Amino acid sequence: MYNSKITGLGYYVPENVVTNDDLAKIMDTNDAWIQERTGIKERRHVIKGDDTTTSMGVKAAKIAIERAGIDKEDIDFIVFATLSPDYYFPGPGVLVQRDLGIKTVGALDVRNQCSGFIYALSVADQYIKSGMYKNVLVIGSELHSHGLDMSTRGRSVSVIFGDGAGAAILSREEDNAKGILSTHLHSEGQHAEELSLIAPGMGKRWVTDIIADNDADDESYYPYMNGQFVFKNAVVRFSEVIIEGLKSNDLQASDIDLLVPHQANLRISQFIQKKFKLGDDQVFNNIMKYGNTTAASIPIALTEAWETGKVKDGDLVVLAAFGSGFTWGSAIIRW
Ligand SMILES: CC(C)(COP(=O)(O)OP(=O)(O)OC[C@H]1O[C@@H](n2cnc3c(N)ncnc32)[C@H](O)[C@@H]1OP(=O)(O)O)[C@@H](O)C(=O)NCCC(=O)NCCS
């Protein structure tokens, strides 16, 4: 059996920086509230026409492919995680295959929101471990900004989310002690609506209902989040799934060199850091600059950590995420 290893990483964020003060000009909020509750100072918003979820993913992917030292034609499969696809269908995986101009490899779309990158990584890892594929392109990308309620009504959600993309190349690794040691995935659909975007969908709010109602005040177009409930579940599930991953590899928290948590909220990361008694240099956070970029947050953070020399050969790197679904997961990696 083979292992899979991350051989290339890349990220892309749009140039347009939106600070907390910028948001305070269009809704009733302020820098102090946002920083105190979330740690976020600024985020990026796509300017319409400049980028899409797919185009950002492609830009990140090109960097990852180059750093992996492979040709784009060496990619055997694409896995794309997002909650903000360019189209209702088809998903962005095939658009990446088209826009990269590569042969007719398979392309799979993952719909697991903030845990999307861990789920996508896990899927790619299984294909490589089974021997089916040698190089898999994994992308997490989100264009949130134009789907948010930017009025005061939506402020508890819209100040948190930002746009961006991250990508990784997973390649076959012969040494089983290296690479992705294991991934751990969970869901609890009982809480599906606690962090959700209901409309349009073929469940509660059909496109035909929306057209018939023609109600400009309809909130179901926008993401809904029960913030405190999400927060309480997140800290528990993050901890559980990190422990599960460590235990399954006979490892302990003290073995962690770098934890790269999904950038949901700086307070959640700090809670986890304290619980596992990790130093400031053992937990990577960049939510201050980018906000919560959902499926893109882990690959953006992991790329920045790698670029700044915080990930070294032989390090134990732990990825963990929690989000809408609820879904959560972890990946235990020997770099
Ligand atoms: C969203 C979150 C920051 C809100 O913080 P909170 O302490 O729970 O705040 P509340 O929702 O209770 O709101 C407190 C007050 O601030 C107000 N408020 C909400 N958003 C605001 C904003 N952007 N600016 C200013 N005030 C705001 C509320 O209206 C409320 O006012 P009230 O007391 O007069 O009713 C927090 O719940 C959170 O981070 N949850 C987890 C989110 C998360 O991780 N999501 C991603 C998961 S992947």
UniProtKB/TrEMBL annotation:
The keyword Acyltransferase applies. Residues 263-267 are annotated as: ACP-binding. GO terms for molecular function: 3-oxoacyl-[acyl-carrier-protein] synthase activity; beta-ketoacyl-acyl-carrier-protein synthase III activity. SUPFAM superfamilies: Thiolase-like (SSF53901). Pfam families: ACP_syn_III, ACP_syn_III_C. It is an enzyme of class 2 (transferase). Keywords: Acyltransferase, Cytoplasm, Fatty acid biosynthesis, Fatty acid metabolism, Lipid biosynthesis, Lipid metabolism, Multifunctional enzyme, Transferase. GO terms for cellular component: cytoplasm. Residues 108-189 form the Beta-ketoacyl-[acyl-carrier-protein] synthase III N-terminal domain. CDD domains: KAS_III (cd00830). Pathway: Lipid metabolism; fatty acid biosynthesis. It catalyses: malonyl-[ACP] + acetyl-CoA + H(+) = 3-oxobutanoyl-[ACP] + CO2 + CoA. Residues 246-335 form the Beta-ketoacyl-[acyl-carrier-protein] synthase III C-terminal domain. GO terms for biological process: fatty acid biosynthetic process. The active site is at residues 114, 262, 292. Its EC number is 2.3.1.180. InterPro entries: ACP_syn_III_C, ACP_syn_III_N, FabH, Thiolase-like. Transmembrane segments: none annotated. It is found in: Cytoplasm. Belongs to the thiolase-like superfamily. FabH family. PANTHER family: 3-OXOACYL-[ACYL-CARRIER-PROTEIN] SYNTHASE (PTHR43091), BETA-KETOACYL-[ACYL-CARRIER-PROTEIN] SYNTHASE III, CHLOROPLASTIC (PTHR43091:SF1). NCBIfam families: fabH, PRK09352.1. The last Arg residue of the ACP-binding site is essential for the weak association between ACP/AcpP and FabH. Catalyzes the condensation reaction of fatty acid synthesis by the addition to an acyl acceptor of two carbons from malonyl-ACP. Catalyzes the first condensation reaction which initiates fatty acid synthesis and may therefore play a role in governing the total rate of fatty acid production. Possesses both acetoacetyl-ACP synthase and acetyl transacylase activities. Its substrate specificity determines the biosynthesis of branched-chain and/or straight-chain of fatty acids. This is Beta-ketoacyl-[acyl-carrier-protein] synthase III. It comes from Pricia antarctica.
